[in-house]
Amino acid sequence: MPSESQDVDPGVMRRGLLHRLGAIWLMLSIGITAITLTAGHWWIADVLANLRIQVIIGLLPLVLIGLVTRRHRITASAVLMLCWHVWFLKVAMIPTANAGTSDVSVAGGAESARGLTVCLSNVLILNDDLDRICESLRKSDADVLAIVELNEFLQEKLTQEFSEDYPYFVLKSQRDGAFGIGLLSRYPLKNPEFINFSEDWMPSISADVELPSRSVRIFVTHPTPPMSQTSFGFRNRHLSSLVDNVKTLLAGQPDRPVLVVGDLNLTPWTSRYQDLLRESGLRDAAVGRGLTPTWYRWPAFPFGLVLDHAWYSTALTCRTRTILPDMGSDHRPVLLEFLLTSPQ
């Protein structure tokens, strides 16, 4: 007797496939989210915690799959994970009372109302378009240029072409390695020194920028990217030592203007970043100013991270933070304007 064939509804088949895909996707998302809870101890977890925006982007289709297949467990689980990761992004969306262009009492009166402008540029050690780098730095018209991944060729060009506009500078290039660093200033630099917060081959700069009214202690720094357990440890020790240095400085001079700028190889969406910021007593110039990346693996938003930062003490107010156009590096320069608040 011949068997009777039954037609299968294509819509049912599609929903079944979507359900199976959604179940796999859900398990993967739960695993990634759970791993981020160990970000303080494991470099892979730290990397995933820094990728919260990318995780959120990946969760959005999962919500859609849950709705289409009417699988409420998938939908609810995806929404809960979305809420968890979005919570960490609140610092980018909610401005603080100190952020923006609100009126402040300015130290030194009208003569110093312009404040201090700083351009932070990770120029990329392999970027050989030196003219493009220099053009970007000139267009920033900043009072202070903070440069990381400085190589010997750019150092030579800067000393030749920028010495008139920026007569005060501290430069330490590297031929092999991505941790050359430099500071150029229109204002005198007092007490400049190279500091090794962790390893000898990873120098940072500390100096006092002497403005007409007050001096500003600036730190320029660049720890290792946490792409192995060893470099993860280097970065963490580096940033912890930096924070200890800042805390010691402010303990003795609470009203001292202090500024930390650098590629910290850490996003604000991690608990470690927020813990370090809180311990330092400093504020984040990026708070309330959106999610625009400063580093790109490929030139599109989903492939970028916010890695270049400025932290500042309560004696300063961040008036503006602008991400500048591409200058041939995987990082974008960040232009910052600060005002000095009057001592209490």
Summarize the structure.
It contains 9 helices and 14 strands.
List keywords for this structure.
6-stranded mixed sheet; alpha+beta; 9 helices; 38% helix; 22% strand; 344 residues; 14 strands
Set down the secondary structure blueprint.
Layout lengths: L9 H27 L6 H8 L1 H18 L2 H17 L1 H4 L22 E7 L7 H11 L3 E5 L3 H10 L6 E5 L8 E5 L3 E7 L8 E7 L4 E7 L7 H24 L5 E6 L7 H10 L2 E2 L10 E2 L7 E2 L2 E5 L3 E8 L10 E7 L4
Helix pairs in contact: 1-2, 1-3, 1-4, 3-4, 8-9
Describe the structure.
With 344 residues, this protein is α+β, with helices and mostly antiparallel strands. The chain has 9 helices and 14 strands. The protein has helices at 10-36, 43-50, 52-69, 72-88, 90-93, 130-140, 152-161, 229-252, 271-280, and strands spanning 116-122, 144-148, 168-172, 181-185, 189-195, 204-210, 215-221, 258-263, 283-284, 295-296, 304-305, 308-312, 316-323, 334-340. The strands form 3 sheets. The protein has a 6-stranded mixed β-sheet with strand order 3-4-2-1-14-13, with no helix packed on it. Strands 5-6-7-8-12-9 form a 6-stranded mixed β-sheet, with no helix packed on it. Strand 5 (189-195) and strand 6 (204-210) form a beta hairpin. Helix 1 crosses helix 2, helix 3 (52-69) packs antiparallel against helix 4 and helix 8 (229-252) packs parallel to helix 9. The longest helix is centred in the first third of the chain and has 27 residues, at 10-36. The N and C termini lie far apart (98 Å).
